Amino acid sequence: MATGMKASKIFLTAIVLVVLTACSTQKIKQESSTSPLSEDSPALADDILQLSGPNPPLTLMKDKKKLNLVRIMEGGACKNDFQGAKGTFLLYAYPGDIERIKREKGPEIFSEFESKIQTLSTEALQQAINVTNLSEDPFALDADEAQQKLAKQLSENFSTAIIGAINTFEKETTLTIAITAFAPSFIFYQEGCEVLQTDENPDANN
Q1: Which of 64, 88, 167, 170 is the most exposed place for a label (fewest CB within 10 A)?
Q2: Is 128 part of a structural domain of the chain?
Q3: What is each CA distance from 67 to 25, 41, 57, in whole angstroms?
Q4: Which of 124-128, 139-143, 175-179 is the least confident region?
């Protein structure tokens, strides 16, 4: 498990929902052979932890709808000066809703959705980090087991933190989405966290 590493300028990247308006998915180097997640979503954390290899599932089931993976996001947060985590987060959306919304409101509406999704994802990630115990587990057999335990805990906390915001988003937009953490991607910091230290200097861009 990587600890004490210095991370630079990591936070949720801008979610360019042009991908959504085109009703396509971001390319992944190799297609995952994992079957779609069950209709019981958002019980997603345990399912994702079972994945082997670097590739997330391209679809999942939610409310009897098949959602497509439309965006892969990177995010990170610090709990304090020493502890934090970064990793990959997956955005899924229902293509039928995308097409309907494009017809009814035009593709421009997705720029508004982009801002909302970025905000709710950022807030949920910070909440999840705040309640996750990032200290070293003295009972873990090795670094791999410690990593898996932390990833499972953070994934579950992220799912809990974001579900209310997703429900509100869906009611407001009529777009069915799921946002879930990809647990195998997580890197945890225990000896120095800088993932939130972006360009806070107001003169940096001058």
Answers
A1: 64
A2: yes
A3: 11, 11, 11
A4: 139-143
- Whether the predicted pLDDT of 51 surpasses 90: no
In a domain, 6, yes or no: no
Are residues 135 and 190 in contact, defined by beta-carbon separation less than 8 angstroms?
A: yes
Kindly tell me the burial class for residue 85, based on how many C-beta atoms sit within 10 Å of its own C-beta (0-12, 13-18, 19 or more): buried
d(CA 49, CA 186): 11
Which percentage of the chain shows pLDDT scores above 70?
A: 67
- How confident is residue 201, by pLDDT bands cut at 50, 70 and 90? very low
DSSP 12-31: PPP--THHHHTT-----SS-
Structural domain boundaries enclosing 53: 18-28+36-79+92-189
Distance CA 129, CA 78 (A): 7
Count of domains observed in the chain: 1
Q: Rounded CA gap, 174 and 177, in Å?
A: 9
User: What angle, rounded to 10 degrees, do the helices at 109-131 and 143-173 form?
Assistant: 140
Residue 22: how many other CB atoms lie within 10 Å: 13
Give domain status of residue 206, yes or no: no
The answer to whether position 160 is within a domain reads yes
